[in-house]
Amino acid sequence: MKRLLPQLPSLSSIYLPCRQRLFRLWPCRPSQNRLLTTAPQNLADDIGSIAPSPPSPLSSLDALARNNTSQPAAYQKPVSLFPGKTNRGPHKLHIYATKHNTHITLATGTRQPLISVSAGNLNFKKAQRGTYDAAYQLGAYVMGRIKAEAMLNEDYAGKGGPIKGVEVVLRDFGPGREAVTKILLGSEGKLLRGRILRVMDGTRLKFGGTRSKKPRRLG
Q: pTM of this prediction?
């Protein structure tokens, strides 16, 4: 007989707003105000004595809702990762890859350059500056310099503060574009890869404008 009866939860296990709504819908006359608080509890106790129900996790949530008087987390003001006036936003890693050279610039959120190098700074001359190998070595050099200067540490006191987030800006489609991308995805960029927030393409597009240069034809 006990198995056939439904297992109803006790009144204390019902969530507080639902319990208050249940009291408003409970049928009673104005002279039976006591029924609002006693009858549902007694009814649930009588049924619970016939078919006992296991303790519900809602009872602990109800106690937590009573004790929690603070503002919900969803309505709290979000905490910025980049506080202060000297660091407005994440760092920027600009990769300008032309067919003749590759330029890499690391700047703060206020556009103050921290590292600005090209393939020519690594003693690549003339046509060698536009090769894939030159761009790969340039990307490895930048990653090594970021690690050597401890820009990722919390106690970094340099310009712009520590690097908490990076936005990668790619421009043009030279050989250095793929080379630096391989650096960021490889072992050299494992420390910086986890802090990349966004990857953007800053390639210039011309709509109309002046007449383009005549294409070079050999032979």
A: 0.60
